[in-house]
């Protein structure tokens, strides 16, 4: 099983939060955490670099490269057998965004993370097009925050509508709608399901939305979209073993087949990763 949507960052959440696995937010802690939750692997997101949001935990400061830092962490690797699978977090409207993406691919990274609210981003702006075109060409699964959140940027830029428009503009780009449009004081779950129906390259990343959405709405969603379009994530390290257990029990309660449940709990995400061509394949 592959636990999606996990954050790692320098120092983790601090010594005061140390537990039986170590300091949450470090690769050493995540190694023990996923085992305790019954998972084999995890998808880890590179920290944001020098964000304007100064109260952000999951970041790296001092001009350091977040992906370079992530790739140096224990258990993180780009080969198929790696325990912690890295994603590059890149500001799409930066002048060198496409070049950063190319460097990530050259390093063997297969996935991306975009957070429009933390990045203070209008993802539909023309400045983002070179990045998204290159991501589409490489078919790199991109985790994209949808919903609200208190990061000092209008929540409209995290709307499902914008994510759906990205899917329409870049139909070859797999977009994982993190939180299914349900985060903070925003709930656009039904809009997210409708967007998935309309765009084959959209997927529901259920991070922090599983129990909040609830059984009735999830059962209705599963009548409209296939389980292959659903990807489990946790928002580690802001979770506990018991909270993950409750979410796993929730998926058990939906009466999914063993194959569909395995897909949601990692196989769907890994299948997308395996479709990404290597740089060598393209030469």
Descriptive labels:
283 residues; alpha/beta; TIM Barrel; two-stranded parallel sheet; 11 helices; 36% helix; 17% strand; globular
Description:
The chain is α/β, with parallel strands linked by helices and 283 residues long. The chain has a single domain, classed as TIM Barrel, CATH 3.20.20. The protein contains eleven helices and 13 strands. The protein has helices spanning 27-37, 66-71, 97-106, 129-138, 160-169, 189-198, 210-213, 215-222, 241-253, 258-274, 279-282, and strands at 2-7, 41-45, 48-49, 59-60, 84-89, 111-114, 142-145, 175-178, 182-183, 186-187, 202-205, 230-231, 233-236. The chain has a nine-stranded parallel β-sheet, with helices on both faces. Strands 3-4 form a two-stranded parallel sheet. The protein has a two-stranded antiparallel ribbon with strand order 9-10. Strand 9 and strand 10 (186-187) form a beta hairpin. It is globular, with a radius of gyration of 17 Å. The protein starts with a strand and ends with a helix. The model has no long low-confidence stretch (mean pLDDT 95).
């Amino acid at each position: 099983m592959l636990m999606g949507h996990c954050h790692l960052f320098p120092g983790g959440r601090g010594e005061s939060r140390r537990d039986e696995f170590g300091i949450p937010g470090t690769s050493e802690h995540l190694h023990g955490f996923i085992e305790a939750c019954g998972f084999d692997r995890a998808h880890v997101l590179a920290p944001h670099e020098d964000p304007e949001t100064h109260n952000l935990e999951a970041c790296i400061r001092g001009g350091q490269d977040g992906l370079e830092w992530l790739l140096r962490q224990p258990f993180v690797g780009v080969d198929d057998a790696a325990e912690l699978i890295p994603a590059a977090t890149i500001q799409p409207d930066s002048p060198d965004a496409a070049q950063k993406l190319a460097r990530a691919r050259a390093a063997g990274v297969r996935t991306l993370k975009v957070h429009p609210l933390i990045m203070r981003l209008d993802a539909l702006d023309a400045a983002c097009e070179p990045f998204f075109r290159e991501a589409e060409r490489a078919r790199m699964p991109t985790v994209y925050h949808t919903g609200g959140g208190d990061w000092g940027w209008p929540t409209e830029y995290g709307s499902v509508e914008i994510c759906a428009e990205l899917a329409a503009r870049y139909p070859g780009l797999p977009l994982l709608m993190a939180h299914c449009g349900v985060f903070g004081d925003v709930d656009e779950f039904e809009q997210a399901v409708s967007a998935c129906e309309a765009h084959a390259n959209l997927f529901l990343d259920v991070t922090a939305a599983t129990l909040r959405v609830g059984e009735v709405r999830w059962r209705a969603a599963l009548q409209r979209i296939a389980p292959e379009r659903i990807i489990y994530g946790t928002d580690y390290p802001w979770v506990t073993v018991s909270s993950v257990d409750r979410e796993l029990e929730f998926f058990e309660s939906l009466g999914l087949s063993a194959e569909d449940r395995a897909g949601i709990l990692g196989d769907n995400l890994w299948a997308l990763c395996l479709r990404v061509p290597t740089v060598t394949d393209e030469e």
